[in-house]
Amino acid sequence: MLHNIYERILFAYTSIDQNLRQMAEKDLNQLEEQDSNFCCYLLELIQTHKQNNQVKFFTIIHLKNVIKRKWKAYKQMLGCEKRQGYFEENQRNQIKQQVLQIYCQEDVGQLKQEVLQILFELCSSDYPFKYPLLINFINQQLESNILEEQQLSFLKQIFKIMPKNQMKNDQYDRLWQKIAQLWVQADNLNTYSQQSLVLLDKMFTNFILSYNQIVFKDEISQIFTTILQKIARLLQSPQQQQYQKNINHLISKCSKFVDIYSFYLTQTFPDFLQLLSVTISSDKKFIIKGGLVAFIRFLKLSYLFQTDEQFQFYLKKKSDSEKQQFMKEKQIIDQILKQFFEKESQNFIQKFLTFITSSNDISIEEMIEQEEENEFEKILHPKDAEIFSLGLIAAELLIIRAPNICINLLQGYIDQTIQAQFQINANILESLLIIIGLIPKIQSKLKMQFQIQYPPIIQYLQSSNQIHHQRRLSILLNRLILILDQNQILSTLTLAGNLLSTSQDSIIQYQSLLCIKQVAIKYDGNLQWSQILVTVCPYIVKLLKCLQRTSIITPLLDLLSKLIEKCQNEQQEVVINAIENSGLLQLMQSKFQEAEENLLIIDQVCQMLKTLIVAYPLGTKISHIVQMASVLIINNINSKQACILELILLLLREYEEQSQNFPISQLINILQQNLDNLLSDTSPINSCIILQIIEELYLLGIFSINDFSKHIPYMESKYTLRDKNVKNSVLGLTTTMILMMLNNNRQDIAIFSGLIQQILNDLIEPEMNDRLDNKFRIEVQIVSILNRFIILARDDYFSFVQQNNISFEKYFQSWMKKSEILESEKSIKLNIIAFLLIIDYVQPNIFTAYITQIATQYGRFSKKQLIQKAITILSPCQRLSQYRASSRKEKIRNTQMHNEHNLQQYFQKIIQDYILKHNLQQDLTIIQALQIIS
Questions:
Q1: φ, ψ for residue 765 (rounded to 5)?
Q2: How far apart are alpha carbons 183 and 186 in whole angstroms?
Q3: Can you tell me the mean pLDDT for 498-502?
Q4: Do 573 and 619 meet the contact criterion of CB atoms below 8 Å apart?
Q5: What pLDDT does residue 348 have?
Q6: Of 348, 716, 838, 879, whose CB count within 10 A is highest?
């Protein structure tokens, strides 16, 4: 076995022959699936080839990949309620022991790093309680008074991936004292290198954060004070620059501790707030950034700024004693914050006015994103963010948290600036204008009235010929729409229109278009929207040509979508001409089909078109929208993008034969030309949509019964996938095919033999219960589809069931068990009809055992009949759903169902006849069941 694995490893990782590599990989994968000892073999191979670094390295890589796949995996145990892990407990222990042993044996280098990754994977689920060997190893590491960098790195990472929210335990008692002692010793900055100090700080904080707050609640105040003191020493150090990583890490973790332990830190709260003020006031860029990040995280702790009523709701899950304690601490914090904002807000605003200035050294798109995407959550790496972005976020949050204080201060600056006729320091003016641009957004969010003098500011910006002032004007106009009344909106729209038509600057044009978008959303009056569309469409196309980022393009597409929607009641010819003359169709033919980076753009355009389609009532003429959609589909149908397929499916479902709301022939031709290529797509997501597209083509009459033989093999192959949505799509298409056969008086079900066998396996076998999350919905589909086969050709169907070595009794029991979950009126009705059709096959003892369930089901169906059915009108959201009911399918479905009155008579007659035939009139179970029916 070892030699076999050895050869396969070498072939898989070193062979230049692709076929050999693929065969070796396949063999290794099979061994992995078939034998849970595979990892132990790999570990043995590593030990037997200690001197061969190449073999050892590739085996470790393969071991790492297997561990990632299988360490938390479960075996596929059919019929077992309790899942069984892939590895036995003794195998897990052996793997953990040997991996740690190999880690200790290896010297520093890539091999050791790879083994470390395996250790981390093992620890993610087993440390600390299931990995005592590692605990002992960590304790040995901590025995040293001074840890090496590699040891610190290991411990830092281990504590980071530890399961969170742990309670106090033996491991805590053994480790905490040593870790705390080591960290305190590190105050002697000469003992460790700068990198080691960072690792030690991270090890220390990661350990604390891995435990539940109850563990450290009594010690956290002292720990927090010690951390603040350490930061202060580092800030005062002559080598301050050298320790910037330490400073930023500790400041960052302080904000995390404040988040978790707020009400245990009231004594040290003022010191923390003072630290924020000191860092933001620093003249060192790296300290300012660290301070801003911590300040933002602090200001985003919404519960600290809640009213007493809101805070009571926040505490609803706490005990009465905790509520009382936290309310008391909250009052102390409220007073601390009030004093802090009164004292420091002016200093913060003055500081913001010095570093919130636009940079000309960045791209147009970066400038736009700085203004529009200033949400802290969207900054992936805050420490790498620009001070401008962090300052903008901090300024906005500060005004939100202390609105009255900050607005009064800003109003004073604005009044002084107006009195000075804007003749102040250019950088300060720029920063002030940027902050003024935030105020309408804040005002709208807080629903407060601020007495800001906007007209003089707008007048000044209009009169200035400096491009950065024109940009500020366009941004301010965009934001002002949020707070203006209906009369003021139109004058702002005029200003934005003038800016759009007179400026060649992309930022000004972009912000002016966003202003027009806000008007389209907020304005309730009548406007000639088609003329606005004619005006702005060329500008949208121009910007789409030169901009790339999805976050920037999406608002432009939203504007286009909103304007076309607003033109619903205006002449379509104007809308069509506006689209054609703007160059939008040509742009969609070129840009959106070329580069891979445009895939997200295609997705956004598809979303825009789908939103537009459902914005119009069903049956409305939408040729102009379909024209755009067709261009996109033609150029991207083979891109294997789900969004394109979803767009096609929506168009097929939205087409109304009576109104002929758009020409569908071009779309049908595109599908027929490309269907073979679409069917080759192996993606489960795409397969699901393709099956639904085929179903709609049958319902539209494009495909007929004669085409079943082309598509059923494809359906069989897709049903074998363990994807719940694909299975549902196969079953949905099968239902449509059966309905078509019923409508054509065809009863030959032999063509479905392979598919029926697969569906029967899911009915009888319990595997699906363990494997599919969506089992209930799928089981409803399975029961319903088999019921339709019974209605279609009962005798042929049960002959086929017997050919598959399934007795009628076994089938009936599985069928009845699955039918317990039926809820909808249609599925219950179908089940009752199927039962009546197979009653002749049912033995009296089986009938007696299940008649109560059938009677109860019939009773539920009868009650549902008494409920008046409201006429359902699909909402736009429902129309967009991939799983919406097809109106065409419902029509043919309803032609194949008994009407309610006839079914009631039919049901009672069949049941009574069966009871009389088998002399069951005196059976108590039968009597009780009949009472349910009557």
A1: -80, 145
A2: 5
A3: 94
A4: no
A5: 95
A6: 348
Within 10 A of 908 (CB to CB), how many other CB atoms are there? 14
- Tell me which amino acid residue 517 is: K
| pLDDT over 80 (residue 278) | yes
249 token code pair? 């890490």
Enter the tokens of residue 701: 């009459």
Shortest CA distance to 166 belongs to which of 237, 216, 100, 204? 216
Distance in angstroms (rounded) separating the CA atoms of residues 669 and 675: 10
> How far is 855 from 852, CA to CA, in rounded Å?
5
Element (H, E) at 67: helix 53-70
Q: Are 654 and 611 in contact (CB under 8 A)?
A: no
Place of tokens 């002032």: 469
Q: How many CB atoms lie within 10 A of CB 420?
A: 10
**What CA–CA distance (Å, rounded) separates 684 from 13?**
29
Does residue 792 contact residue 756 with C-beta atoms inside 8 Å?
no
Tokens of 235: 């800030």
Single-letter amino acid code for the residue at 102: I
State how far the alpha carbon of 25 is from the alpha carbons of 73, 276, 280, in Å: 20, 55, 55
Q: What is the tens place of the pLDDT at every residue in 745-767?
A: 888 888 999 999 988 888 886 54
Round to the nearest angstrom and report the end-to-end CA distance of the chain.
70
* DSSP sequence for 835-851: HHHHGGGS-HHHHHHHH
Q: What percent of the chain has pLDDT over 70?
A: 92
Could you give the residue ranges of the DSSP H alpha helices within 219-363?
Answer: 220-236, 244-261, 269-280, 285-299, 308-314, 320-355
Given the structure tokens 């779309």, which residue do they identify? 667
Q: What is the pLDDT of residue 518?
A: 94
Least confident of 65-79, 260-274, 586-600, 787-801: 586-600
3-state secondary structure 521-587: HHCCCCCCHHHHHHHHHHHHHHHHHHCCCHHHHHHHHHHHHHHHHHHHHCCHHHHHHHHHHHCHHHH
**Residue-by-residue DSSP string for 910-925:** HHHHHHHHTT-TT-HH
Beta bridge partners of 166: 211
In this prediction, residue 374 carries a pLDDT of: 62
From the CB of residue 470, how many other CB atoms can be counted at a distance below 10 Å?
Answer: 21
Helix, strand, or coil here: 500?
helix
- Give the bridge partners for 879, in sequence order: none
| Close Cβ partners of 311 (under 8 Å, ≥ 6 residues apart) | 303, 326, 327, 330
- In terms of Cα–Cα distance, which of 538, 505, 539, 532 is closest to 516? 532
CB atoms inside a 10 Å sphere around CB 713: 11
- How does DSSP classify residue 596? G
**Whether pLDDT at 55 is above 50:** yes
From residue 667, how far is each of 605, 634, 647, 693 by CA, in Å? 18, 9, 11, 12
Q: Distance (Å, rounded) from C-alpha 432 to C-alpha 736?
A: 65
* Spatial separation of the C-alpha atoms in residues 733 and 715, rounded to whole Å: 9
Q: Which residues contact 701 (CB under 8 A, 6 or more apart)?
A: none
Does residue 456 have a cis bond before it (omega within 30 degrees)?
Answer: no
Confidence of residue 622 (pLDDT cuts 50, 70, 90): confident
Q: Are 738 and 792 in contact (CB under 8 A)?
A: yes
